[in-house]
Amino acid sequence: MLPLLPDQGVSQHSQHTHLDGNLENNGTPKLQFDTIEDTIEAFRHGEFIIVLDSTSRENEGDLIIAASEITTEKMAFMIHHTSGLICTPVSSSLTTSLDLPQMVLNDNDIESTAYTVSIDASDVRITTGISAYDRALTCRTLASKSARPDSFRRPGHVFPLRAKDGGVRERRGYTEATIEFCKLARKAPAGVLSELVDNGEEVEGRTERIHGGMTRRNGCLMFGRRWGIRVCTIEALVEYLDGRNAEDKINGHV
Questions:
Q1: Pairing of the two strands 201-202 and 119-121
Q2: 190 DSSP 8-state letter
Q3: Which of 87, 103, 172, 241 fits as disulfide partner to 115, beta carbons 3.0 to 4.6 Å?
Q4: Where are the alpha helices (DSSP H) in 102-216?
Q5: Interatomic CA distance for residues 235 and 168, integer angstroms
């Protein structure tokens, strides 16, 4: 049985302000992406990060954290501010060792997202599998070195995603970006992500909300500023990795 982690709120390790030393005309700080180095450091300390893809792709932002670091309270925060569909990017080798086959044989997803069968942890503390507690425990179980195929029930309420072995240079997706951050931060190759959403406005006297949708670039940056979360792009991550690779070649490390 996995040990319980002490539940914590959203980490405030990095109280950054996305400043570049300049202000808007109205005196407010300019919205700006964080560096990959700062984002890796936040991820290493168990914090959420926000990653955006290209405007020519989904043009959305995902809230991401290492699976080993997700607590009940952090999961509750994620569920509240996102679509609530909790996905867990994992390395392809982990899907093999944990016996997580693809959800469908013919993947027709527009972005070729590689969903495996859904899971719940087969831990005696799991009840329905859908609560923040249950889903956080399932995610932590994925990241555990002691996890085995029988550590999970199938189907369940958490959705693993198989990452491409070539990472973001093979596929510029959130799945691969998450695993890249796990590698860079020296975490187990399992993360947790969900899409940030704008829940819109309530309609007085009606069980409806209007003007909702996905959270785009500026919305993600503003969300990051509000909660002290580092924000970066997949493009910047690719550039960072390319730069590291070039430096390694110069230094004779590859």
A1: unpaired
A2: B
A3: 103
A4: 132-143, 174-184
A5: 9
At residue 111, the pLDDT reads: 87
Contact 133, 70 (CB under 8 A): no
pLDDT digits 0-9 by tens, 165-201: 999 999 999 999 999 999 999 999 999 999 999 999 9
What is the spatial distance between Cα 193 and Cα 112, in angstroms, rounded to a whole number? 17
Please return the burial class of 57, using the count of CB atoms within 10 Å of its CB with bins 0-12, 13-18 and 19+: middle
Answer yes or no: are the C-beta atoms of 215 and 199 closer than 8 Å: no
Is the separation of the CB atoms in 53 and 238 below 8 Å? no
Closest by CA position to 159, among listed 177, 131, 138: 138
CA proximity to 142, closest of 185, 103, 194, 179: 179
Q: Please give the Cα distance from 246 to 127 (Å, whole number).
A: 49
Reported confidence tier of residue 143, pLDDT bands at 50, 70, 90: very high
Q: Is 14 helix (H, G, I), strand (E, B) or coil?
A: coil
Contact assessment for residue 237 and residue 33, using Cβ atoms and an 8 Å cutoff: no
Yes or no: say if 62 and 174 are a contact pair by the CB < 8 Å rule.
yes
**Reported pTM:** 0.88
**Distance, CA of 175 to CA of 3 (rounded, Å):** 27
Indicate the residue type of 52: L
Q: Which residue has the tokens 């999970």?
A: 152
> How many C-beta atoms surround the C-beta of residue 122 within 10 A?
16
Report yes or no: 107 and 178 within 8 Å, Cβ to Cβ.
no
